[in-house]
ATP-binding protein
Amino acid sequence: MDPVRNPYAPGAGQRPPELAGRDRELDQFDVVLERIARGRPERSLVLTGLRGVGKTVLLNALRSQAIKRLWGTGKIEARPDQSIRRPLSSALHMAVRELTPRHRDPDHIETFLGVLKAFALRSGGENTKLRDRWHPGIDVPAASGRADTGDIEVDLVELLVDAAGVARDVGSGIAIFIDEMQDIPAADVSALCAACHELSQQALPLVVVGAGLPHLPAVLSASKSYSERLFRYVRIDRLDREAADFALVAPAEEEGVTYERTALDALYEATDGYPYFVQAYGKVTWDHAPTIPITENDVRVAAPDAAAELAVGFFGSRYERATPAEREYLQAMAALSRLTDGTVATAEIAAHLGRKPSSLSPARDSLIKKGLVYSAERGSIAFTVPHFGIYLREHAPVE
């Protein structure tokens, strides 16, 4: 098969040729946008799921929906131990710039930009590294007395309320998209929840759409008890058989290529319906297939190469980030999750390693911070990457 015409796209956050199995989420967000446009209160949205299920892709698709409705939009990716003050300032600046041409009151825009500048400039002092300072292209003086207290919760509430006021003036809205939301520092999470609460109470046209790992709802709940009612939580999971087949067949048919049914059976068995794996196996199988239709044998021949690529780029790169102590913890998890590749009790890991649970806490906490595992529930732990346990058992050397 011509590799130049290969339609599959196994990239991090890269939109596949066919966004299969996500129609319900797209339709729900359309309803959210329409309700807010009509002045009705609506909750912000939080997408959760494992690595490789397409959260970032879906987040970008939702942003495209907002842009089509002429909303102002901005996107950030949260990072551990970094305040969202600076990246959020940049995202809001972009969102308001998209609305400015339709705004009839330049003075109102100028006033808001002054508030935004004041908020941003509170992100650090003289000791802040140059690369971490925000240099806004805002030719207005920073405002005084609004969003500039240095208390992130007070400042963020005031800033988002003012931003929503700009959007309301033009009969539109603002949507802020936050990827890796579980990495937002605790104080900023609390501030974001408080701001979303205020926006919802006033039915203001600004919505936050976050995406993160499965424990993100617990992160939000630990910050504000009312967060359980503040956000609409949507779990993004692997594709069912019909959607996984469609993700492979639809783009192939546009290139005049078909699959035998048994080939699709083999691909679903190999990928388990995880969108990233579907794209990875689809791409390698296409490159290996000599003729049309693609057969089960083509899949079997291509599978080792697809698995090898995942071992290096998807699994291996994550494993290499772990320290020896963390790798020992991961290996124990893999051994104990042999049957289900699922949740493991932390007490069982300690027993397996012949260690006290407290002595393993640093390794566990560091792995959580690195996004390799998450606390599924109290006293248990799970991999954030599907099939990671299988990879560790089959490929990763025991330390």
About this structure: The first helix runs from residue 23 to 37. The beta strands are 44-48, 72-77, 174-179, 206-212, 231-235, 344-345, 373-374, 380-383. The mean pLDDT is 89.
